[in-house]
Amino acid sequence: MPPTSPRSIRSLWNECGEPMTSFQTVSAGGLEVFYREAGKPGAPKLLLLGGFPSSSHQFRNLMPALADRFHLVSIDYPGFGNTEMPDPAEWDYTFDHLAEIVDEAMLAIDFTGPMGLYMQDYGGQIGNRLISLHPDWLQWQVIQNSNIYEEGFTEIWDGIRRVLWVDRNPQTEAPLEALVEPETVKAIYLTGHPDPTKISPDNWNLDLHFLARPNARRVHLDLFYDYRTNAAQYPAWQRRLRRDQPKTLIFWGRGDIFFTPAGGEAYLRDLPDAKLVRLDSGHFATEDCLHEIVDGINSFYDEIVK
């Protein structure tokens, strides 16, 4: 993918003064890494880290809605969206490795220093690793259906946590391939959302396009297995929350197919001053609660962060 021209890279506002999003690539870890950028450089930074099975596409509406006051970046991880997907036989698909690539990409585009982190699903597992590497980067955080508590796992995880993590082999992997089948991917977007007509089918159709690539299923099975390394770090991440008390806004779609409402409530044990917004939504809450999330972020920033 050819790089965007220098003029368009920084011209994130059109001739009418409306916020725009640019689409760019940067070399990181020997890969061409795709990212979206919106807002004006020099504005407060907000890094958007998304989750399975999507990409930065999940923030396509959130970014322009916040671009009038924040400088925003969202990066596609290796194997997701428009970033390269190296062969898993030669490239380790682990959350440590994904975080390394995101970190290198951020350094390459000079998106560093104090910032907010918006973390959804896998984004929390990668974001917590970035915070460990650069504790001075975390100025504030928005957590949206990103679990770090035992009680946060729904039953859909049973085949991963109690079978695959115990003994990975072709027999324990086979049932989990259903998680990347069309009906399940569609269900991830629709489960818990009261009005399915508000959820664009472009979401799952785009994800299914990327999931149809050679080796894509192997990539995601590798990450399902490696998710055990996240669960192992939950106690350490919880201790850090208790110790540092970062300014935290939590949005939790209560109908999430992957994470229970208890997973959102659990944050308040460690962050009693956090603001928890319970949403009548699911895994991808920005699809039907965009205005509530945008207003909540703007208010939280004005009242708590500034």
From TrEMBL:
Ranges where the AB hydrolase-1 domain occurs: 46-285
Gene3D superfamilies reported for this sequence: alpha/beta hydrolase (3.40.50.1820)
SUPFAM superfamilies the record matches: alpha/beta-Hydrolases
Pfam families: Abhydrolase_1
Alphabetical keyword list: Hydrolase
Molecular function, one GO term: epoxide hydrolase activity
Protein's recorded name: Alpha/beta fold hydrolase
Gene source species: Kribbella soli
Higher taxonomy: Bacteria, Bacillati, Actinomycetota, Actinomycetes, Propionibacteriales
